[in-house]
What we know:
Helix content: under 10%
Number of strands: 8
Mean pLDDT: 89
Number of helices: 0
Number of domains: 1
Distance between the termini: 7 Å
Low-confidence stretches: none
Amino acid sequence: MAAYICEICGMSVGSMTCGKCGKELVHDTITTDEGETVHVSKCPDGHGMVKSPMCCAQDMTCSAQ
């Protein structure tokens, strides 16, 4: 299970699931057209992805994949 953790305050977010199939989202990264790496959580069945959670005005880091 991926857990996202705020490096500033320690807040954490556990598993997130896909609203279509109910499967746990998996951590991944994508590269934008500008070359920036963005952390995302993806549905393993290809139903979509969301940007990683934010806390304290910054992206939370992922502790496991």
